[in-house]
Design brief:
Blueprint lengths: L1 H32 L2 E7 L6 H10 L4 E6 L6 H11 L2 E6 L7 H14 L5 E6 L2 E5 L4 H7 L5 E10 L15 E4 L4 H4 L4 H4 L5 E6 L3 E4 L6 E3 L4 E11 L5 H15 L9 H11 L4 H9 L4 H6 L3 E4 L1 H9 L1
Parallel strand pairs: 1-2, 1-4, 2-3, 6-11
Antiparallel strand pairs: 4-8, 5-11, 6-7, 6-8, 7-12, 9-10
Helix pairs in contact: 1-5, 2-12, 8-9
Length: 316
């Protein structure tokens, strides 16, 4: 009886391993056939944009479509480098001084879908690093290909305390926020409250209708939605105080005249109540709670995460 059971167990394990191998082969075949295009809207991201392209190309993205909105810091020159290299399929110069993010992203997404025949599309920002645990975005997408709208969570990073000399420190070797019980720790900051609540979306091109503001949701034909836990978006949206000040000024000016007053409320608040009143240092301290930095690290609200740094070191 024991020999029979052992034989059956051996057959079961052998068949299980064959199924796993076949499943892996099918996923790899799907990856090889899949065309993943990432579209990017950017403005003045010279400090981060080189790493952004290197990272996502190594993470499985096949090509990019980019819109540059009046960059003045050298970003446009860097983008041209990747256009000449063949990574960027189309480079669009958008001269408008008013922010129409959804319209501009929709234009790129439709170009990726209709002109370049993308299978899957990611609409991203230059401060977002889309990290797959498998180190290949297309692998995780293939595992969820029965759906057409895939959501992933944002993980916000906070800048260094002494970030006036930020240029001496790589932005991606930082600290990120970790989900916590807000009431338990008496933390009053929108920055901290947003952790693990904000999602971004990966779209199946054939079923795409329209992108929403901020690339958080998309309207799809016959929507079949799933969440991918193995892909996270590491978000380096504020890199130092100077970056914070410049971003509030530019973002506030672009958003202020939009008719939809519900869009960009935090930018309006910073711009009107802090930037225009010369209180940006106050906003900086209040938003990031720097006076509680050590305490927040000790209780696990702020955690060290070197995933992006480790990957960048590997691909350089």
């Amino acid at each position: 009886m024991n020999k029979q059971m052992a034989k059956l167990a051996t057959i079961f394990i052998r068949n299980r391993d064959k199924r796993k191998k076949r499943q892996k082969e099918l996923i790899e075949q799907s990856i090889n056939k899949t065309k993943l295009i990432m579209v990017l809207l950017c403005k003045d991201e010279a400090d981060i944009i080189d790493d952004w392209f290197l990272f996502h190309k190594a993470m499985g993205v096949d090509a990019f479509i980019v819109t540059d909105n009046n960059s003045t810091d050298g970003t446009r020159k860097i983008l041209q480098k990747y256009k000449d290299k063949g990574w960027i399929l189309e480079l669009i110069d958008e001269p408008s001084t008013t922010m129409h993010q959804a319209d501009w992203c929709n234009r790129m997404i439709l170009t990726a879908k209709n002109k370049y025949k993308a299978d899957w599309i990611i609409s991203a920002d230059a401060d977002e690093f889309w990290y797959a645990q498998s180190l290949n975005l297309k692998y995780d997408i293939a595992e969820n290909s029965d759906c057409n709208s895939l959501s992933v969570y944002l993980k916000n990073f906070i800048p260094y305390l002494n970030s006036e000399n930020f240029i001496n420190e790589p932005y991606f070797i930082g600290r990120r926020l970790h989900r916590f019980e807000e009431e338990k720790y008496n933390i009053k900051s929108k920055m901290y409250s947003y952790e693990d609540l904000t999602a971004k979306v990966i779209m199946k091109a054939s079923d795409y209708k329209m992108i929403g503001e901020g690339n958080h949701k998309a309207r799809m034909y016959h929507k079949r939605k799933s969440h991918i836990a193995d892909i996270v978006v590491y978000h380096y949206f504020i890199r130092n105080f100077k970056h914070f000040n410049d971003k509030v000024r530019k973002g506030g000016e672009a958003i202020l005249n939009l008719p939809n007053k519900a869009f960009g409320t935090h930018w309006r608040d910073w711009y009107e109540n802090y930037y225009l009143t010369d209180k940006m240092q106050t906003a900086w301290n209040e938003y990031f709670l720097f006076e509680r930095f050590d305490d927040l690290c000790n209780i696990g609200v702020i955690v060290k995460d070197t995933s992006v740094a480790d990957f960048m070191e590997k691909i350089r």
